[in-house]
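To close the section, here is one more complete example, presented without commentary so you can practise reading it yourself. The ligand is magnesium ion.
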Amino acid sequence: MTRRISIFGATGSIGRTTVALLEAREAEAYEVVALSGGRNIALLADQARRLGARIAVTSEPACLEALEAALAGSGVRAAAGPEALEAAAAEPVDWTMSAVIGAAGLPISLAAARHGGVLALANKESLVCAGALLKQVCASAGTTLLPVDSEHSAVFQALRGERIESLERIVLTASGGPFRTWSREQMRAATPAEARTHPNWEMGERISIDSASMFNKALELIEARELFGLPPARIEAVIHPQSIVHALVGFNDGSIIAQMGPSDMTGPIGHALDWPERRPLDVDRLDFAALGRLDFEPADEDRFPALRLAREVMAAGGLAGAVFNAAKETALDGFIGGRIGFLDMATLVEHVLNELGAEAGAVAGGYGLADVMALDRTARRLGRAWVETQSGGLPWT
Ligand code: NDP
Ligand code: MG
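Output:
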């Protein structure tokens, strides 16, 4: 059977791995409807030609001309801008990969969730910002939401065949990132180049820096809460420097099931692509004798305040996650742009949460995408204003 497939964020780290997986399969097994990218037009056009996509969309309106030129004679339609992205995501397909980075992925996830089939969700921000809305749209359209994030794919795999009522706890592992053993004083002077060097995983720049600050794990705690519904107190993070165990689930009889695999996103993406079956994947096989040991350490919430903030966001509930994520993205922009230091990121996020968290947390339900985006904009505005006060009133341009 030919499956119709769309990939959003195809030019990114997750997207490229997804494209490679498809290309390793029989061409008649799939038909690519839409591919999307941002500024990497050459790669997007190349992927669209190779996969014979029906439409290629860039999120950047200014890149439309370049995309049209790169696709000339290929028969692939070109489009640009956020509305075109959403329209492409609304095209019915059997399997969608949502792998745009940041809150920009939310409208895409929601549009894809409306048409049924499988929504393979790498964009964790969709669940962090609007978990209740996304789950409700999936439920009413009969869309299957499959996690792609390695830890959540691990939990999902460990829960196969189990009754959700017997689930007692979820433990997400974190590598600890490049600053696992650094003091706060050392982290204060950390540069973006140091922060983006992940010890185990090859990922996009933004998620790599989020791993160094543990904001990635913070998002993942909230993501796990949304996906699996356990009370926040029963969702833990533990440092596991080798990144071999991706998550552990504990049951009411004290038993634990862990999922392991190489640090390669081909595994979780392939799992979401082939679910409910498993198919052979070209990834390394673990050699336990060579590994020798697996280590676990407590996650230090004093050195990594993002984890403490995630607990506050889960306690606040409602749309506090949208505020948290927007503030985090602004902080990351500020750090990458050299406007603020590494530790300032958590201070900025805490400041914005103090301003908006309670109000956002009180939004219990009945909200729509527009409400989420409005909160997102307010949180970013507050975050940028905070950065401006830190830099002596210099405007953020
Ligand atoms: P990358 O930064 O590598 O790629 C992001 C993709 O989104 C690119 O295709 C990029 O286009 C596109 N893009 C950037 N900005 C926008 C925008 N405003 N609107 C639409 N598209 C845009 O990210 P990753 O692949 O690392 O991450 C993607 C998602 O998957 C994130 O949510 C991340 O948290 C999650 N994830 C990633 C993992 C990984 O191993 N990388 C692991 C687990 C989860 P272009 O590059 O052409 O500009
Ligand atoms: Mg992860």
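Once you have examined the tokens, check your reading against these statements. The mean pLDDT is 97. Residues 118 and 144 are 5 Å apart (CA to CA).
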